[in-house]
Amino acid sequence: xxxxxxxxxxxxxxxxxxxxxxxxxxxxxxxxxxxxxxxxxxxxxxxxxxxxxxxxxxxxxxxxxxxxxxxxxxxxxxxxxxxxxxxxxxxxxxxxxxxxxxxxxxxxxxxxxxxxxxxxxxxxxxxxxxxxxxxxxxxxxxxxxxxxxxxxxxxxxxxxxxxxxxxxxxxxxxxxxxxxxxxxxxxxxxxxxxxxxxxxxxxxxxxxxxxxx
Length: 213
Prior knowledge:
Layout: E1 9-17, E2 23-26, H1 28-31, E3 36-39, E4 44-51, E5 56-60, E6 82-87, E7 99-107, E8 117-120, E9 132-134, E10 140-147, H2 150-157, E11 165-169, H3 170-179, H4 195-202, E12 206-212
Antiparallel strand pairs: 1-2, 1-12, 2-5, 3-4, 3-12, 4-5, 6-7, 6-9, 7-8, 8-11, 9-10, 10-11
């Protein structure tokens, strides 16, 4: 049978608003190879720019947001600091609600010593890609990008990795946005600290996106 014009869903991911007028960030691999990109309500999203090296994409969802994920004044990430990751793990298999996990920054580099990433132990599953990783004041630390391949590590070392996930550093996101002429908002918190307060502040800016082929 002929597929519907909009295509079938071939992948899902997460995204977050960086401007109130509809610009949002996700991973480049989330929107790569998509015939169309839509949010969880079926509203179309336009891919404005994609950087496969950084694994970042800027999209326009054509609607306003009540809040955005803000960047903190300093771009550094500190070992041991609190991190909360927002997103939609496993697509819609767990329902359509936003999910949040918490942990700490466990390493200051990604695979192979990649300084554009950092390591954390907050849970990241398929579907979390592109979601924001924020500090305990709700400021952006990075963008969730993936985890170690458990099976590959098991075969190579004989041991399953425990809690090894990665995020793209906020300074990489800021550099990417600057190239597109976008200046993200900064803040020093003010909305309260702790998972409950941060979740209330960040949640309105985070949404699910679907890749249709």
